[in-house]
């Protein structure tokens, strides 16, 4: 149904940046030599969180690209997400919806690779120097780096970008996300130093991942600036490989590969950005989007709805080979997707109530009847990754959890939470009986035709969603089960723009949401689950979780000094979150389902951790006319 795999590597853009994150996927890193306090600082081309970067000094290109891919042609794509229109080019402010693909205009000091979980290589920066005390990182800017207007990228521009993103004019999540970076210092015109509040192995990479834009963006002829939070359709001035060619009415936009792009020969860019033009067409709903693809209106479709893949992604163009269907293996952690409860609502305050709502969800029935057996039930916030907790807590996990014992449910210290199952000998009836008992313990009893509390108020809530027909059958099946408990649930669909506003102001009861996966969890978890974010409008903490115990575990996570410490903290966090029943978990799979025109080509070696849309845009290419476009797939 909804997307179950998105980003394999960590994105250091908070949710307020909205769609910016897909091409700036940078991983928390720090050198192995940083562990010794006596080790001298020195500048290097790349850094890795644990061990050494995969690619050595002087490498020519990443393994998962085709360095000889021909350049040219136009790639036409549809909505890369549920966005149906856009009203700005600025992806860094809270209000409005940025144009799809706008992230292609901006680059950062470093970039990650898609075949290792925690590394970063110089992009705008040509060397990186982390201080021995880990309280700062210094980047030297590549003298070739240029903005789209021809200006050199300077340390002043980097400082301007950082200061602007931390200011009230940018989405508020940036100030949280960059909170432990105290300031950016211009050392000289080509050198910038970021200073940290405290040592943190992730901070050098957070600094390296800051999107950089020119201080001239929004500059008017009279020398004054359009306020950053009012930038709408003013042309961004970034240093990326594409610029805006033209757009139409907030529904179509075309980007042109910049012939003067400064970084085309960098090892991290060889074999990428192969299309001369990239066009996005935004369709009003998923049905129109699918039919437009089958009619040949755009070139590639990433399919997230299993029944479409089985029954609707068919037709004469598939039969004659003009359109190709293929499932591509990916190794992204599964992340978490589910029905998220808004803890700001009194209805969801009691963990017994939340557990009862989980018991009413019949995944096995859905997988048989709607999903063609394509999915696996989620049972972790870090499913299908080393950070997934299982069995009894390990000694490392207990070292984190024991000091918090008085604040935690004793069940946290027992076996890992297991999701209810309706396969024999289990059954939905047995699960609903357990749910009824939990609800009764929490003060909810059936009378006068509804489940009611002591004040006679009915148990009633709304499930909010914007994916329409895709999620509706799932929600309705869930609602039928809830009705057997006397719970009055309803399903409401709204468009993307409205649901984003509702999310930003936390105006919902329950919603279907996906937390993008990360291979090495870190600061983004603080934004998602930290108490400070719960009251910050537009934050990632949609559930409104406020837990001192969770906050303490998050601090252990972001300050982990070894891989084992990080895994222990993530697993401890997983146990506490799962035992809290804040989300009714849904499902995941391990492949990207992509349908595409046979004239498109992709590299022989697949990346490991990647989003399908970004992979298509960044590394695919158009078959040259001489090939006749007859081969459905070319490696």
Explained architecture:
With 635 residues, this protein is an alpha+beta fold. It has two domains: 315 residues, D-Maltodextrin-Binding Protein, domain 2 (3-Layer(aba) Sandwich); 247 residues, Dipeptide-binding Protein, domain 3 (Roll). The chain has 17 helices and 26 strands. The strands form eight sheets. The protein has a five-stranded antiparallel beta sheet. The chain has a five-stranded mixed beta sheet with strand order 20-19-21-15-22. It has a four-stranded mixed beta sheet with strand order 3-12-11-10, with no helix packed on it. β8 and β9 form a beta hairpin. It is globular.
Strands in their spatial order, largest beta sheet: 1-6-7-9-8
Helix segment tally? 17
CATH architecture verdict of the largest domain: 3-Layer(aba) Sandwich
CA gyration radius, whole angstroms: 25 Å
CATH superfamily of the largest domain: Periplasmic binding protein-like II
Protein name: ABC transporter substrate-binding protein
Pfam family, one: SBP_bac_5
Keywords: Signal
Signal peptide: 1-43
Topology:
Layout lengths: L42 E2 L1 E3 L25 E4 L32 E2 L7 E4 L2 E6 L5 E6 L13 H12 L5 H6 L3 E8 L2 E6 L6 H6 L33 E7 L3 E6 L19 E5 L4 H9 L5 E4 L2 H7 L3 H4 L3 E7 L6 E6 L9 H9 L3 H7 L6 E2 L17 H7 L26 H14 L3 E3 L2 E3 L7 E6 L6 H12 L4 E6 L2 H9 L5 E6 L7 H7 L1 H4 L13 H11 L4 H18 L2 E3 L1 E2 L2 E7 L2 E2 L10 H8 L1 E2 L13
Parallel strand pairs: 3-12, 19-20, 19-21
Antiparallel strand pairs: 1-6, 2-5, 4-5, 6-7, 7-9, 8-9, 10-11, 11-12, 13-24, 14-24, 15-21, 15-22, 16-23, 17-18, 25-26
Helix pairs in contact: 7-10, 9-16, 13-15, 15-16
């Amino acid at each position: 149904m909804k997307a179950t795999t998105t980003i394999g590597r960590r994105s250091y853009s908070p949710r307020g940046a909205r769609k910016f994150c897909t091409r700036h996927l940078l991983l928390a890193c720090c050198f192995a030599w940083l562990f010794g306090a006596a080790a001298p600082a020195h500048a290097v081309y790349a850094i890795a969180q644990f061990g050494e970067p995969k690619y050595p000094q002087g490498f020519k290109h990443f393994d998962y690209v085709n360095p000889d891919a021909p350049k040219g042609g136009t790639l036409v794509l549809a909505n890369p997400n549920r966005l149906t229109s856009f009203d700005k080019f600025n992806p860094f402010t809270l209000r409005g919806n940025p144009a799809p693909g706008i992230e292609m205009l901006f680059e950062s000091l470093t970039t990650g690779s898609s075949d290792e979980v925690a590394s970063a290589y110089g992009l705008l920066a040509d060397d990186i120097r982390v201080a021995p005390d880990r309280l700062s990182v210094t980047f030297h800017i590549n003298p070739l780096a240029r903005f789209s207007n021809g200006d050199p990228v300077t340390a002043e521009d980097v400082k301007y970008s950082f200061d602007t993103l931390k200011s009230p004019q940018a989405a508020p999540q940036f100030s949280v996300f960059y909170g432990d970076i105290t300031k950016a210092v211009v050392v000289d015109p080509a050198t910038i130093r970021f200073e940290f509040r405290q040592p943190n192995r992730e901070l050098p990479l957070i600094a390296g991942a800051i999107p950089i834009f020119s201080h001239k963006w929004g500059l008017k002829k009279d020398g004054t600036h359009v306020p950053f939070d009012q930038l709408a359709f003013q042309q961004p001035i970034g240093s990326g490989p594409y610029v805006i060619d033209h757009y139409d009415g907030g529904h179509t936009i075309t980007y042109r590969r910049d012939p003067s792009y400064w970084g085309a020969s960098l090892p991290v860019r060889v074999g990428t950005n192969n299309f001369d033009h990239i066009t996005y067409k935004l369709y009003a709903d998923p049905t129109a989007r699918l039919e437009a693809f089958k009619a040949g209106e755009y070139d590639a479709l990433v399919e997230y709805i299993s029944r479409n893949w089985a029954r609707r992604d068919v037709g004469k163009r598939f039969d004659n080979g003009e359109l190709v269907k293929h499932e591509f293996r990916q190794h992204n952690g599964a992340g978490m997707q589910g029905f998220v409860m808004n803890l700001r609502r009194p209805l969801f305050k009691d963990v017994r109530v939340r557990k009862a709502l989980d018991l009413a969800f019949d995944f096995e029935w859905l997988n048989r009847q709607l999903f063609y057996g394509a999915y696996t039930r989620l049972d972790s916030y870090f499913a299908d990754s080393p950070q997934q907790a299982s069995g009894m807590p390990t000694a490392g996990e207990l070292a984190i959890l024991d000091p918090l014992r008085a604040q935690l449910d004793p069940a946290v210290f027992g076996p890992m939470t297991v999701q209810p199952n309706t396969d024999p000998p289990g059954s939905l009836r047995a699960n609903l009986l357990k749910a009824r008992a939990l609800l009764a313990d929490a003060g909810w009893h059936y009378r006068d035709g509804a489940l009611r509390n002591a004040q006679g108020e009915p148990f009633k809530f709304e499930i909010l969603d914007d994916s329409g027909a895709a999620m509706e059958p799932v929600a309705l099946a869930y609602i039928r089960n809830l009705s057997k408990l006397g719970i009055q649930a309803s399903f409401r669909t709204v468009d993307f723009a409205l649901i984003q506003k509702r999310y930003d102001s936390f105006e919902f009861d329950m919603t279907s949401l996906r937390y993008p996966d990360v291979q090495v969890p870190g600061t983004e978890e603080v934004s998602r689950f930290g108490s400070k974010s719960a009251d910050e409008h537009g934050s990632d903490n949609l559930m409104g979780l406020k837990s001192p115990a969770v906050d303490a575990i998050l601090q252990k996570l972001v300050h982990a000094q070894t891989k084992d410490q990080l895994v222990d903290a993530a697993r401890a966090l997983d146990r506490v979150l799962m035992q809290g029943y804040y989300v009714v978990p849904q499902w995941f799979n391990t492949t990207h389902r992509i349908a595409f025109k046979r004239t498109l080509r992709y590299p022989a070696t697949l990346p490991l951790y990647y989003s399908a849309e970004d992979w298509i845009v960044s590394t695919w290419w158009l078959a040259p006319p001489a090939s006749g476009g007859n081969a459905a797939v070319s490696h």
